[in-house]
Amino acid sequence: MRSACPSLCLLVLSSFLLAASPVDPGYEAAARAYHAAGAGRFDEAVRQMETAVRQTREPVLRRQRILDLAVWLERVGRNARAAAVYRQAARIAPDARIWKAAGYAYQRSGDKSLRPAALDAFEQAAALSPDEAALWRQIGYLYKELGQRRLALGAFRRAWNLQPVMPPAGGEGDDPAVTPRLLAREIAELSDRWQGSLDFVWRANAPRGAPVVLSERSLTSSQINLSLARLFDSFVGVRRVRVFGRLLAAPRRGEILPDDRSLQAGIGLSWQPLARHNLVLTVERLVRIGSFARNDFMLRAAWSTGAGYAPPVDGGRTWSFWSVYLDGALIDPRSPDLLGNAQLRAGRARAFGRLVVAPQVAVNLFAQRDDFGAVSLLQIEPGVELRWSLHRDARPQPPQALVFTVSFQKKLLGSSRNNRGLALRLSWRF
Fold first, then answer.
1. What are 373-421's pLDDT values in tens digits?
2. Is the overall model pTM greater than 0.85, yes or no?
3. How far apart are CA 292 and CA 276, in angstroms?
4. Which residues lie closer than 8 Å to 67 by C-beta, 6 or more apart?
5. What spatial distance separates the first Cα and last Cα of the chain, rounded to whole Å?
6. How many CB atoms lie within 10 A of CB 11?
7. Interior/surface letters 393-424, b for 16+ CB within 10 angstroms, e for the rest
């Protein structure tokens, strides 16, 4: 017994010294935090773990507690703070998953001023995991929101090249049925490209022998419109520049061929100055060809918004759509002619393969003032649109389609002679 006494005394003394100078000063606060989290008291868990993190010095243990704190901060809805805490953990030991968690937390915060921080977090993740398509897609969306559309295009193209052929094991990652359509749509929108359209509009009650309506959205006359444009999504630092040429004409009486007297050409430049609003400013030189045409300058401003025009990327077969369109034009600033259009449209579309059938109703307003007087028209226009997509698969290419619309126009108010009648429109978009 005597020989064991010194060893026993030394063991007791050692235990006392360890308790007095613990290796982990944050142990007690962390234990209280985990106990509170286990009971669902995450606000209390956050407070205790913040104390534990301040007291912890050992890097591996500190990093783990920081990660737990970030998760609990998300549970209580403090996403911006959670993102900042994730960044702390990533700086201790860089990890793509942690940087990615920080980026998503910034986005969930809903604070638009934190978009640059979210972008930085995703770029840090992509630097560590450069072959992850989902990261490049998030980077693309953030660049697009921040108005850096060229950089967004590069990120989307990289995501397109990296997207997996088969879904990742365990069901994680992007949906292989949806993501290609999302990326194809973004790449097509942001790329410099040619655009064109050929439209033929026939109205049963259209006036004869009149000039074409130069704002393109005529509610009163039959019309043929051919246009070709080159769209530059970013041109010497200016966003969305479009150089275009067009040819307008009214059809001959009882025919679909253009009336030579009505031939009107135009060459112009349009600019979309705002990143988040579809406002388009246009300067166009009108070139006279027919005897009813004119040589003048036209200034236009058009604005539109809406949703649901394109089929949903998740493959849904039915969807609702709506749009609002406003257009004002001034011809010959020295002796101005004024034109205005407005349209509110809504409907429900259904896809049958590449064919989309879209019953809809529109309320249209048209006004014009020139040397001959003023004309106004308010009408309601129920109809149905048939749209046939010329694309067979999801590839990064501009939309191409044949569109046929049949509608009935009913005048509600205004001085126009167009009271009511059938309208047919056939369009080729390319």
1. 898 999 999 999 999 998 776 677 777 899 999 999 999 999 887 778 9
2. no
3. 39
4. 86, 89, 98
5. 100
6. 10
7. ebebeebeeebebebebebeebebebeeeebe
